[in-house]
Write a structure and sequence with these properties.
The protein is α/β, with parallel strands linked by helices and 378 residues long. It folds into two domains: 97 residues, STAS domain (Transcription Regulator spoIIAA, 2-Layer Sandwich); 225 residues, no CATH class. It contains twelve helices and four strands. A hairpin with a 5-residue loop joins strand 1 and strand 2. The radius of gyration is 37 Å and the shape is elongated. The chain starts with 5 loop residues before the first strand and ends with a helix.
């Protein structure tokens, strides 16, 4: 039976340092031998001998460890000479040395922090461009499916549409109404605080009407729907993708965009304008209650001033934005849902991504509307 693999150091004749390799130097003993070699002190040693006469067995792993030890010591200025190694192991040791010389380790220079930052920024830019192209492709597929339904109205899935209208519109009314009511209260209070310095508190009604009707009502409603319904679209379709229901639809010849995407987008196109109207009413109601409670004006005076500022143009500016925001939210939510790769982690990651992308696109669209309306003088 083989003795245990060992690595020892002793002082030989003439004071020469001798390292003795003993036992089976095979893959099973390499981890322990490597640890012992690394703990061996080589201080003040310029020349040494490696006595391998005690090696009973040697495989490729053991030969590599012997060769690596000699190579590393040579780099540190220590000349290590092999002695006593059985001649039958010579070719194996030579083969390991040749393989190392033919495939030297390349020491790569560690990139600087600035380089890493630029690399991350560049990757993010390319990812954004790729995501934009893919989203535009999906937009084209959605428009084509929409035209097919318009040409053949019987393909419209009314049951799915009604269900999505309930989920995205009716069930969202309480949160939209509550939040916009509170925002109206805050807007009225902050506006009145600033206008009081000029004894123009009554103009709070004008600012409230213009801000809510043109911007705040539709924008906050869209952001809420993006976080509530857009994320739900991604999660629902993503779970269907995980369960291979989407693949089953394609197998039987049914277009997933027509079945899953269009009912959700059409529902948002119907519900977000209605929610925007409701949000405007809630915000104006909150602002009116706050203003009458804190300002030295009567309810009749404030409502009359508010009605004068509520022009049809301001109302129409906000309402025109709603269908565009709805389409963007529905498109992104369904697109990210169809990208789910088959794991729960993918659903969570893409749901978060869907909400972020929807909100960013909504705000970009709102900024574009503002620029266009300003250029047109509206």
């Amino acid at each position: 039976m083989d003795q245990e693999a060992a690595w020892n150091m002793r002082i030989g004749a003439g004071g020469k340092v001798v390292f003795a390799a003993e036992g089976p130097w095979t893959v099973g003993a390499i981890a322990d031998l490597d640890s012992r070699i690394k703990r061996t002190p080589f201080n003040d040693v310029n020349e040494a001998e490696l006595d391998a006469s005690g090696v009973t067995r040697l495989d490729t792993a053991g030969a590599w460890l012997l060769y690596r030890t000699r190579r590393d010591l040579s780099v540190e200025g220590v000349k290590l000479e092999f002695t006593g190694l059985d001649a039958k192991y010579g070719p194996l040791l030579a083969l390991v040395e040749q393989a190392d010389l033919e495939n030297p380790e390349i020491e790569r220079e560690r990139p600087s922090g600035l380089t890493l930052l630029l690399a991350r920024v560049g990757k993010a830019v390319f990812d954004m461009v790729e995501e934009t192209i893919n989203l535009l492709n999906f937009l084209g597929l959605t428009i084509m499916a929409l035209f097919k339904v318009l040409l053949r109205p019987r393909r419209l899935r009314v049951v799915s549409l009604v269900n999505q209208v309930e989920q995205t519109g009716l069930n969202a009314m309480w949160i939209v109404g509550l939040l916009l009511f509170l925002i109206g209260v805050v807007l009225a209070f902050q506006s009145a605080e600033q206008l009081r310095k000029f004894a123009a508190e009554i103009l709070t009604a004008d600012g409230l009407a213009i801000l809510v009707l043109r911007e705040i009502g539709v924008l906050i409603a869209a952001i809420l729907i993006a976080g509530r319904s857009g994320s739900a679209f991604t999660a629902e379709i993503g779970m269907m993708k995980v369960n291979e229901e989407v693949d089953a639809l394609q197998t039987i010849g049914v277009d997933p965009i027509e079945v899953l995407v269009l009912p959700r987008i059409n529902a948002l196109l119907l519900t977000l304008p209605l929610l925007t109207f409701f949000a405007n009413f809630a915000a104006l109601a909150g602002g009116t209650i706050m203003s009458v409670a804190t300002l030295d004006v009567t309810y009749t005076q404030f409502v009359r001033q508010l009605a004068d500022a509520m022009t049809f143009k301001n109302f129409l500016v906000g309402m025109v934005k709603a269908p565009v925001f709805a389409f963007l939210i529905g498109l992104v939510g369904c697109y990210e849902g169809l990208k789910v790769s088959g794991s729960a982690e993918s659903i969570g990651r893409l749901t978060t991504k869907s909400v972020v992308e929807s909100i960013v696109l909504v705000i970009l669209a709102d900024a574009t509307f503002s620029i266009v309306f300003s250029f047109l003088g509206i």
